[in-house]
Amino acid sequence: MLAACTACGSIYAARQWPDGEIRVIGQKSCSCGSTDFELVDDSDDDPEVGTDDG
């Protein structure tokens, strides 16, 4: 999953723990120093399936 820093908007690969906490993978905080992240919803980026242009 992807997570965005709530302070600067940087995007990181992340994991959500069972308690709901979101942690970036491979480091403890964002490059700006923040440790608050929110999940990024990328479901709108999926290509449409079954469209017919002809």
From TrEMBL:
It comes from the Archaea. This is Uncharacterized protein.
